[in-house]
Amino acid sequence: MEISAIPRLFPAFEKELQREIQEQGEIRFFKTEEQLMRTGQYFRSTMLILNGLVKIYREDDDGNEFFMYYLQPGQACALSMVCAAEHKRSAIMAKAVKETEIIAIPLHFMEEWMGKYKSWNHFVIGTYRARFEELLSTIDHIAFRGMDERLEFYLKKHQDTMGTNLIALNHQEIANELNSSREVVSRLLKKMEQFGKVKLHRNAIEIIQL
Amino acid sequence: MEISAIPRLFPAFEKELQREIQEQGEIRFFKTEEQLMRTGQYFRSTMLILNGLVKIYREDDDGNEFFMYYLQPGQACALSMVCAAEHKRSAIMAKAVKETEIIAIPLHFMEEWMGKYKSWNHFVIGTYRARFEELLSTIDHIAFRGMDERLEFYLKKHQDTMGTNLIALNHQEIANELNSSREVVSRLLKKMEQFGKVKLHRNAIEIIQL
DNA sequence: TCCTTACTGTGACCTTCGTCACCTATGGCA
DNA sequence: TGCCATAGGTGACGAAGGTCACAGTAAGGA
Predict the structure, then answer these.
(1) From CA A203, how far away is CA A193, in angstroms rounded?
(2) Is residue B129 less than 8 Å (CB to CB) from chain A?
(3) Would you identify the CATH topology of the domain B146-207?
(4) CA-based nearest residue in chain B for residue A129
(5) Count of CB atoms within 10 A of residue A209's CB?
(6) What's the whole-number mean pLDDT along residues A138-166?
(7) Helix axis angle, A118-144 relative to B118-144, nearest 10°?
(8) CA A39 to CA B140: how far, in whole Å?
C-alpha cells in the first residue's frame, strides 16, 4: 500500500516530496471507532489520511461530541497543522469511521518542506482553506437553522460521503453528533418519513428523497 | 502613514517584502460602518489592516448578520486569501467599526511572494491558524452555550477589543450581531444589571464586573 | 418648552427543543 | 418458544428564546 498510495492520493506533490513522505512518515492503522486524536492532546505530527474515513468533532467540557466534518483519503487534518506549528493542545477530537490508515509526518518536516516544496506549501494552504469553509458552513447551520434542517443536512452529508442510501446509525448516535437528544431525532425522522423523505428501519435509515 | 506603518505592524517581514508591499499595495480608507467586502463579492486582492478596526460577519439568505470576530491592525482577512486563491465569491461580510485604513495586495502577488518570502508564508499560515481558532471558539459558543453566556462573552470581547468599559451600542444592534432579538437582549442585560455585572444607560452599557 | 422619535422595559403567548416516563417492537439466543 | 436487551415511539411537561403589544423614558430638534 505504501508504495502506490502516496502518488495516487497526492499526485500534485513533487516526486522528491513523495519519496520523503514515504521515508519520514510513519504509517499507522486505526480501527473503526478508534480515536486518532483526543481533545487536549499535544501533537507531535501532522496526519495525512491514506485510507478509510475520519470524522472531526468539537467537544465541550461535559464530553458532548459535536460533529463538524469528514476527512477523506488525500486530505489532512488542518488542526494537527495548527497545533503542531504552535505546540498547542488539540481543540478537537478525531475518530475513525472505518478502518483507517494514516501517515504521520513529524512536525519539523512540516516546517522544512514548506520552504523546500512548493506543492507542500500549496497543500497546506489548501487544507486550511477547505477546512475553513467547512467550519463556516457548520456555523451557518447552527446559527441560522433549526434541528429539522440540520438533521436533513447531516443525513445528506452522510449519504454523499459514504456513498450509500442506507445509513447504519441509530437515533441516539445521530442525536449525539448533532448535540441534541434521541427523542427529538426520533420525532423529526418520523416526520420526514411521513413526507416520504426517508424510510425508517431498525438501526438504519434509508434515504428516499432529500 | 504608509512609510512607518508597514515596518511597525509587520516587523517580521523582510525589508524587501515591506518595500514591495508599499510599492504594489493600494491604500484604501473606509469610514465607520462602511463595508470592506460584501457577501457574494469576488476578490481581486488580499487586505492587510493598517489602522482602525474591522468586524467579520456571516450573513444568511435573509440578510441576518452574525458577528464572528474582529480584525485589528497588523492582521489580514483570511477569507480574502481563501477566495483570492480560488477566484471564489466571498462567504462573509466585513465592516469597519472605526475609521479604517487598509492596504490591498493584488492577488497575484500573494502567490508570488509565497515562494519568494518566507515571512510572507508564515504570515499567511499564521492568519489561517488564528482565524481557524476564532471560528472554533465561535462554534463552541453557539453549539454549547445559551444566550446569557454568549451575551456576556460578546460584551467581554467588545471591552477587550475597544479597550473601554463603556459599550456604545443599543440593544437592537447587539441582538442583530448575536442573531437574537432585542427583547431577549434587554431582558438578559436587565438580569446582568441586577447581578451588578453591568450598568445600563441609554445607548450604552457600562461594564462593572464580568 | 414641548413634541417627536428612538430606545428600553415588560407581560403574554408561542414554538422549539430537551427531559422524563413509559410503552412497544425487534432480534438474538438460551 | 419465551426471555431479555436494545431500539424506537409518544405524550406530558418545562425552559429558553422568539414574537407581539404596549407603556415608559430620555434626547434632540422645532
Answers:
(1) 15
(2) yes
(3) Arc Repressor Mutant, subunit A (1.10.10)
(4) B82
(5) 8
(6) 96
(7) 20
(8) 13
* Average pLDDT for B183-208: 97
Q: Which three cell numbers stand for residue A205?
A: 435509515
What does the pLDDT read at residue B4?
76
**What homologous superfamily does CATH list for A2-143?**
Jelly Rolls (2.60.120.10)
Is residue B143 scored above 60 in pLDDT?
A: yes
Instruction: Indicate the length of chain A as a whole number.
Output: 210
Q: What is the CA B61 to chain-centroid distance, rounded?
A: 21
Chain B environment of A124 (Cβ under 8 Å): 125
- Alpha helices, DSSP H, located in chain A: 2-9, 15-24, 78-86, 107-116, 118-144, 147-162, 171-177, 182-194
Q: How far apart are CA A176 and CA A65, in angstroms?
A: 6
Residue A106 bridge partners (DSSP): A45
Q: Smallest Cα–Cα separation from A120: which of A69, A48, A50, A51?
A: A48
What residues have CB less than 8 Å from B43, skipping those under 6 apart? Answer: B37, B80, B83, B84, B87, B88, B90, B107
Domain extents in chain A: 2-143, 146-207
The answer to whether some atom of strand D lies closer than 7 Å to the beta carbon of B115 is: no
Query: Could you tell me if B153 lies within 8 Å of chain A, comparing CB atoms?
Result: no
Tell me how far CA of residue B8 lies from CA of A63, B11, B74, in angstroms. 43, 6, 9
The grid cell for A162 is 459514504
- Match 445600563 to its residue by C-alpha cell: B200
The pTM assigned to this predicted structure is 0.91
Q: What is the mean pLDDT of residues A53-71?
A: 93
Q: Which of B121, B128, B131, B138 should be substituted to probe chain A, the one whose Cβ sees the most A Cβ atoms within 10 Å? A: B128
B195 touches chain A (CB under 8 A): no
| Per-residue pLDDT tens digits for B44-75 | 889 999 999 999 999 988 889 999 999 999 99
Q: In the numeric block, which cell numbers belong to residue A55? A: 470524522
**Is the pLDDT assigned to residue A73 strictly greater than 70?**
yes
Give how far A125 is from chain B: nearest CA, Å: 7
The torsion angles phi and psi of A12, rounded to 5 degrees, stand at -75, -15
**A180: closest chain B residue by CA:** B143
Residue identified by cell 487586505 is B47
Q: Helices A78-86 and A107-116, interaxial angle, to 10°? A: 100
Using N-to-C axis directions, what is the helix angle for B78-86 and B107-116, rounded to 10°?
100
